[in-house]
Amino acid sequence: xxxxxxxxxxxxxxxxxxxxxxxxxxxxxxxxxxxxxxxxxxxxxxxxxxxxxxxxxxxxxxxxxxxxxxxxxxxxxxxxxxxxxxxxxxxxxxxxxxxxxxxxxxxxxxxxxxxxxxxxxxxxxxxxxxx
Length: 131
Hints:
With 131 residues, the protein is an alpha/beta fold.
């Protein structure tokens, strides 16, 4: 079975729905398509949770329960602040899911996040309308 490592950057309504859906449908995706989708990092404006081997379904559902901007409190995997380059060094995602809020003037932070991901050779999926 082929494994795909995913980093979710932005953990509002869309990010939580995406993570919850993957947690609940993991078995179906594995059986039907022969792929294991492992979420290895989740970041919001408060911090980042990283587990290089991937969070299990239970952990993902618990992560969806943390308050807004509260990913930093998801111990023992999380910390305050987000250094995306460090996250990439530690978790080595194959896919970057960009879900941060849109700034229509600057495109940030999505623009910089996407550039970093592409420079690292990571595929990007975005629901961000600004960049």
